[in-house]
Specification:
Helix content: 10-25%
Number of helices: 3
Radius of gyration: 24 Å
Number of domains: 2
Number of strands: 12
Distance between the termini: 91 Å
Order of helices and strands: EEEEEEEEEEHEEHH
Largest sheet: 7 strands, mixed
Strand content: 15-25%
Shape: globular
Length: 293
């Protein structure tokens, strides 16, 4: 299904906004993506970042209505270079785990590797989709959008779009300045596709992301964000450390639920405190009786 217009009620994400307006996509290891670790292709497929300069960001444009599924969800990824000829010429995908089962449910992204450039939503393949070597992409998009200045962004990293950059314009040290690649997708389209999978989704839902570049729209074969290489690994996304910290589309960091063992520790602590005060109360009573006699 092709789409070119922004739905009524959607608020656009300003893809050119400075990084200070975006929410960094973080990882438990605090490890941004290592440089020069793309398996195939050029440095245009290399996701780059370091501790002061994250490799990935997200932004949500609320529709400004009571609905929780309108608005627009945007992403910005830092890429190692723009290789001649000008323009992003490969593919980038953001995999969504929308129900916290460790499996990719949908892919959002950009495919500029074919005859026609597009922003879109893709289904994962028929595999388990829980690790690099069990994951593929159905190359025909579920929904596609013609790239415009409203939903697509490719720009040199500058002090305008990244006020914190200073002189760090070439993180990978390859001799070419880094670029920002950005895109946005209407929230109601994402929600509609997840609903077909039986997954309820809105701007307050908790997500984790797997971000990668690819030479074409059927596999993640270039660079996995958050780890060196490993695009063919059998380790799960979580084991590799490439599953982002939980976050909502609106950019709120999700508070993880307490584990069963933590609840046991807290319960035992509460019982201990209660026992302490009972003993103290009994001792005070005995002291008072002794003072009266």
């Amino acid at each position: 299904m092709a789409a070119t217009a922004v739905p009524a009620g959607a608020t656009l994400v300003d893809l050119a906004a400075p990084t200070t307006d975006w929410t960094p996509i973080l990882y438990s290891s605090n490890n941004p993506d290592p440089s020069n670790d793309q398996q195939t292709g050029s440095s245009e497929g290399d996701i780059v970042g370091n501790l002061p300069h994250p490799s990935a960001y997200t932004m949500f444009g609320d529709g400004g209505t009571p609905s929780l599924t309108d608005g627009t969800l945007g992403f910005r990824i830092r890429i190692g270079a723009d290789v001649n000829p000008n323009g992003f010429k490969t593919a980038l995908f953001v995999g969504l785990d929308a129900n916290s089962d460790g499996r990719i449910d949908l892919f959002l992204g950009i495919n500029n590797s074919g005859a026609a450039d597009m922003v879109g939503i893709w289904n994962p393949g028929a595999g388990l989709n829980v690790s690099p070597n069990t994951t593929s992409i159905v190359s025909t998009p579920l929904v596609s959008y013609t790239p415009t200045t409203d939903n697509y962004y490719w720009s040199l990293v500058t002090t305008t779009n990244d006020p914190t950059v200073g002189t760090a314009t070439d993180i990978d040290g390859g001799g070419q300045a880094d670029y920002f690649l950005g895109f946005s997708i209407p929230m109601n389209d994402i929600a509609a596709q997840l609903a077909l999978l039986g997954i309820a989704f809105d701007q307050n839902s908790t997500l984790t992301y797997v971000i990668a570049t690819a030479t074409q729209a059927n596999s993640l074969n270039q660079d996995l964000n958050g780890v060196a290489g490993n695009v063919n690994s059998s380790l799960t996304w979580s084991q590799l450390g490439v599953l982002s910290n939980p976050i909502t589309p609106a950019g709120m960091a999700a508070v993880p639920e307490a584990s069963a063992s933590l609840w046991v520790v807290l319960l035992l602590a509460a019982v201990g405190v209660q026992h302490h005060f009972r003993k103290r109360k009994a001792a005070n009573r005995e002291s008072a009786l002794a003072a009266r006699s």
